[in-house]
């Protein structure tokens, strides 16, 4: 049985953990220690080995060599059940909830609370769920159907679920990727509470500002190897980037190559179903990146989906290149050269179990068909062209999209649209769950599109991103444009003041 470690002894020890696949070294002798009540941030680019290391801790993947020590108990490998019994809990980036159950049912799935007759005790389950939801600041109830929860609320459920076991180590993988700023602050308090209880937290995030705020220590992985660590006084944005990629990154802002050109998109008094009492008027010009900011519920995604034809507008006028354009379906929007890179690329942007080449040609099969028969050679040639131009890291375009990192999946979504001569592209949270190196590549692509005359609209909840990448920022509040900011007026204060309606 595990024994409690002394306060000054490591709670978790990884010694020389390696994982070798045929032709690939995913991890090469990684060692690290996690202390009781410590927040250890694990950083690295996609493909650095973070996920492999966490899968080994979770018992999903067997290491090729090395050992794991938890509370002075040594393991050559962990099974899933051993990992759970040892008190290792996960908050996954990829949400693992079931829409057909309520919140309480998801919380205790596989650990159901039963009465003396062996039947499910629904009321007891809901009562056990309430304090866990309160701990993460959730506003929904135990009996809420999961299918009605937003992406941010599902993330809160995942965090609460992880806390529902007797955890010694809580591993959080991009836990704030779908949370608002206020929800993120709540999570930081949850982490502080876990620390106070002597629970260790392994915090994996590409949002380096959050890491700087909450981490006691930072460990960097690079190409499957231990790249170094930083203690509290050494943790800075620049130091973490150097640890991850071995070099400094340039400023987020890339100046436009040419002055703003002609108007591409114009909305006048457009009303959407999500905020029927509000209307939006805006313009997007060639050569600029228009950032759209706002709190969750402000109507950013709903506006994007209206332009893309997912939901018809209730009223108003949309013009593309000066001509009336009212897409009644995504098919009509695509035919007009308007494309959407959705927030949830896995659910609505890709067919994960289909090949890269199939995903890239899916929206434009007519151009790769002859007499109604799709040409395999044509779709593979198109995919090869996009793979080379976008730097998609895949050995073969016939690999399934599910096998790629988040950054490379996003490039596949981009490749689908770039092969079709876009006129306007809307990016909804374009770098969610993507590492800093891949982010930089995405930002360069956004600028290249704008410089090529494509209209670029970027919806983002990442304040550093919205300020660092945009040429102009529009702030939505309750379905309306609360204000517009030009680059000299960019600041977090000014964006938030417009977003919350402060004087």
Task: Characterise the protein shown here.
- The chain is an alpha/beta fold and 503 residues long.
- The chain has four domains: 10-97 and 151-245, P-loop containing nucleotide triphosphate hydrolases (Rossmann fold, 3-Layer(aba) Sandwich); 99-148, no CATH class; 252-337 and 422-503, 3-Layer(aba) Sandwich (Rossmann fold), CATH 3.40.50; 349-419, no CATH class.
- It is 32% helix and 25% strand.
- The protein has helices at residues 50-57, 80-85, 103-107, 122-135, 151-163, 181-196, 208-214, 237-245, 300-307, 330-335, 345-349, 356-361, 376-390, 406-418, 436-451, 463-469, 492-500, and strands at 10-21, 24-35, 39-43, 65-70, 73-75, 88-91, 169-173, 200-204, 217-222, 225-231, 263-271, 280-285, 289-293, 315-320, 323-324, 338-341, 369-370, 373-374, 424-428, 455-459, 472-477, 480-486.
- The chain is globular and about 70 Å long.
- The termini are far apart.
């Amino acid at each position: 049985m595990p024994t409690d470690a002394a306060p000054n002894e490591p709670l978790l020890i990884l010694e020389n953990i390696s994982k070798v696949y045929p032709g690939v070294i995913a991890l090469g002798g990684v060692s690290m220690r996690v202390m009781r009540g410590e927040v250890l941030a694990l950083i690295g680019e996609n493909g650095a080995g973070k996920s492999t290391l966490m899968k080994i801790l979770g018992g999903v993947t067997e290491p090729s060599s090395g050992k794991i020590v938890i509370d002075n108990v040594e393991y050559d490998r962990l099974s899933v059940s051993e990992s759970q019994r040892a008190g290792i809990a996960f908050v996954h980036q990829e949400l693992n909830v079931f829409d057909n159950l309520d919140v309480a049912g998801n919380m205790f799935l596989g650990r159901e609370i039963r009465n003396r007759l062996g039947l499910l005790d629904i009321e007891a389950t809901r009562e056990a769920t309430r304090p866990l939801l309160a701990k993460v600041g959730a506003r929904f109830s135990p009996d809420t159907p999961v299918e009605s929860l937003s992406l941010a609320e599902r993330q809160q459920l995942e965090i609460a679920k992880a806390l529902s076991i007797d955890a010694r180590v809580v591993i959080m993988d991009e836990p704030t990727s779908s949370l608002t700023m206020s929800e993120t602050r709540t999570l930081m308090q949850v982490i502080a509470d876990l620390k106070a209880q002597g629970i260790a937290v392994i915090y994996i995030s590409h949002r380096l500002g959050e890491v700087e705020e909450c981490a006691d220590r930072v460990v960097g992985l690079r190409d499957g190897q231990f790249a170094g660590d930083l203690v509290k006084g050494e943790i800075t944005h620049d130091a973490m980037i150097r640890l991850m990629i071995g070099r400094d990154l340039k400023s987020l802002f890339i100046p436009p190559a040419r002055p703003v050109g002609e108007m591409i998109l114009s909305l006048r008094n457009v009303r959407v179903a999500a905020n029927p009492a509000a209307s939006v008027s805006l313009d997007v010009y060639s050569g600029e990146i228009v950032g759209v900011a706002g709190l969750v519920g402000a109507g950013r995604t709903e506006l994007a989906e209206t332009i893309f034809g997912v939901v018809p507008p209730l009223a108003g006028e949309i013009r593309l290149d000066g001509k009336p354009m009212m897409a009644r379906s995504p098919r009509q929007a695509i035919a007009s050269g308007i494309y959407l890179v959705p927030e949830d690329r896995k659910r609505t942007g890709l067919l994960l179990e289909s090949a890269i080449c199939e995903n890239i040609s899916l929206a434009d099969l007519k151009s790769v068909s002859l007499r109604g028969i799709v040409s395999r050679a044509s779709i593979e040639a198109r995919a090869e062209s996009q793979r080379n131009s976008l730097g998609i890291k895949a050995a073969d375009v016939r690999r399934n999209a599910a096998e790629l990192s988040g950054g490379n999946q996003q490039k596949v979504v981009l490749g689908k649209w770039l092969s079709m001569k876009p006129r306007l592209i809307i990016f909804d949270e374009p770098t969610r769950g993507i590492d800093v190196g891949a982010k930089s590549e995405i930002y360069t692509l956004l600028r290249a599109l704008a410089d090529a005359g494509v209209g670029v609209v970027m919806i983002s909840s990442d304040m550093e991103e919205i300020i660092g990448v945009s040429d102009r920022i529009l702030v939505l509040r309750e379905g309306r444009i609360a204000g517009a900011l030009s680059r000299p007026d960019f600041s977090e204060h000014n964006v938030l003041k417009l977003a919350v309606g402060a004087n």
